[in-house]
Amino acid sequence: MGILKTFVLGGVHPEENKLSSNAPIEKLAIPKQAIVPLGQNLGAPSKPLVKRGDEVKVGQLLAEAGGFISTNIHSPVSGKVLKIDNVIDGTGYKRPGIVINVEGDEWIDEIDRTEDLKTEIKLDGKAIIEKIKTAGLVGMGGATFPTYVKLMPPPGKTAEYLIINGVECEPYLTSDHRLMLEKGPEILVGTQILMKALNVKKAIIGIENNKPDAIKHMQELVKSFEGITVQALKVQYPQGGEKQLIKATVNREVPSAKLPIEVGCVVQNVGTAFSVYEAVQKNKPLIDRVVTVTGKAVKKPSNFLVRIGTPIQQLIDAAEGLPENTGKIIGGGPMMGKALTTTDVPVVKGSSGILLMKKEESQRKVESPCIRCSKCTYVCPMGLEPFLLSKASKLGKYEIAETEKIMDCIECGSCQYTCPASIPLLDYLRLGKNKVGAIMRNRGRN
Fold first, then answer.
1. Residue 193 has pLDDT above 60, yes or no
2. pLDDT at 1
3. In 286-351, at which residue ranges do the beta strands (DSSP E only) sit?
């Protein structure tokens, strides 16, 4: 396996709980009704192109990008548009979405549904980027940043390394792990496509060493792919953060308030690489994804290939139901995920997992006064002072929060995980980032 690399600043070691790592990907049944939110990416929501009563097919364009930082949305099902209305999404708020009553499973003719591996990349870099843009691809690790934007470095910036994120450091989640084991060749062709789009000669796939089978499998496969290497990484959360992964793999530090391209790197998730393969080689837009359903009381921890728009209740039912002692349902993992208010919430492009936590696990401890132990500062992978930033946010001192670089926070939750006083540091940090971000945007407009 070679030398295990990692990042050097901060980090924690939560219990891994990879309960579904041996569960092969299962194709979930198509829902009877699909709920497709229009805001499935970081940036502007998409603009609907269909209306009530329209007949749609799988892969048909439902909504177009609403700006540069936005994406197209395609129909994950075939049937009739019931309505375009406000629907509850993962935030718990009602936002615009398209509701489709499912009838059969009729796909548009352009999509290649065969299983054969297509290795020849016929498109040039510019055409690849346009194809990825058209297909509505986003970062599948959860950030949901439009993929095509990352492939277009600003003037004066050049990519030197493509880094494929196979870390999956969030406890419980295993969708990326299973994808590497079951769709390794497709991921590697997708990586080659991304390399061609960026015009880079080197790609590194970073995988934590708690996935030895995935490391071994991918190392064997890359022997047939020039310029791609696999780097085994030490288990340390949040290794999957872009800046932490860049430090671990190529030993470069992204400056404060800067993007990875500043140090010649572009990071893409393994799920994104697989979606790139499907979009470019099979003409398939982003209409489904792998989602982990797990928890210590779950009877059948699973990894499901799910159509976008499927209510999460259907996934829970397929994992043999909601355990009686469930205290909280989390969209994502326990460190960065967010509690869901209802099981009617649909799967979206950024849905990586559904975690069912037992009551005794999910109850927050009573908050006590900060004892100035500095544990939160010690574990912060961004070198911030979470106790100071959370206090500033709580008191509405947003100018202090901005000065102390709250926007550098990656919301990993390491500070809250380690706090002996049980202070909800991450909650305050998210609040502060939201407020400071709004202040900075308004300042830019004036």
1. yes
2. 54
3. 288-294, 302-307, 326-331, 338-339
